[in-house]
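WARN  no MSA supplied for this record, continuing single-sequence
INFO  ligand: alpha-D-galactopyranose
INFO  echoing inputs
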Amino acid sequence: MDFREFYGRDPEGVWRAPGRVNLIGEHTDYNDGFVLPFAVAQGITATAARRDDGVLELRSVQSPDAVRASDPRPGEVTGWAAYAAGVAWALREAGHEVGGASVLIDSDLPQGAGLSSSAALECAVGLALCDLYGIEVPRPELARIAQRAENDFVGMPCGIMDQSASLLCTEGHALLLDCRSGLSSQVPLDLTGFSLLVIDTRAEHELVDGGYASRRAACEKAAELLGVPALRDVEDLAAALKVLDDPVLRRRTQHVVTDNHRVQAVVGLLRAGAVAEVGALLTASHLSLRDQFEISWPEADVAVEEAVRAGARGARMVGGGFGGSVIALVPTDRDEQVREAVTAAYADRSWEAPRFLEAIPSPGAHRVS
Ligand code: GLA
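INFO  complex generated
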């Protein structure tokens, strides 16, 4: 089905926003730290046209339910459409005059793989509405508006990484983002001889429930006890760990501080053209997420272990945790072995077979036509 069949008229344009893989820097964004995501080739397309009755009508090729709302408030739209309606709301809250629109959403991002389909949806719709109504919003600002939609309309206390990745990434690069200043730079991701293999562990995650929010709350508590604005500001980790009595807060702090350093180390290695050396840091990040931040899941741990055993230079879970994907840095000539080893290990445990996808560092959100 295309836009004409759904709405009986022609669209005014097509906008596309990609999903992302985060190379490293996990749960560092809301701690004012550093992240290093890149956009993938898969994403979300919004085909849209203005309407003069002020109504926002949302349909999706993948889902039967349609949503019609005029000026929806938080809580009035649920499910996938909340991410789209939330952006219209957040744009208006930021003082931009967006009117009604008919929007058709289409996605080629694998469902539940943790490649940030929600941010891609927000960014595709956000770009479409801005273009349709001639609103000029700098992209870092649009990322914050999309994040506000997710925080205050959907109710998921995410940081700024996913929306920034979808809007700011460029082909062949990872995005180094300082989540405090909002400043970013493009880091060349030259993968000659390697591939970044996404292993979808088929364990789905639901970030709107407690695990993500409780990690965020623990980090904020630790920063407060340490007397710093955010864990980003911890300079002497050993001293900080002595101040914190609660072993859980110590573990959370240890992860955030060390992962921030790992981002910087990976950026240095990439700029030096030493992509192979990045692998060990990916695995170190995974162990930290598993043991210190405690957000890994069995399918991810097995995928990391088997991928490395079969020749990957390193691997880690990506995203919020509790489900989704693992990324592995695989020498091109080990690709088959890695896929086979992970598939066999899942079969041994009677788990659903993993899905594989090669992540290609791709352009950020743009107007297609
Ligand atoms: C989710 C959130 C991001 C970030 C990651 C963890 O993807 O949306 O803001 O916090 O988890 O790094």
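Residues 121 and 185 are 24 Å apart (CA to CA).
INFO  checksum written, moving to next record
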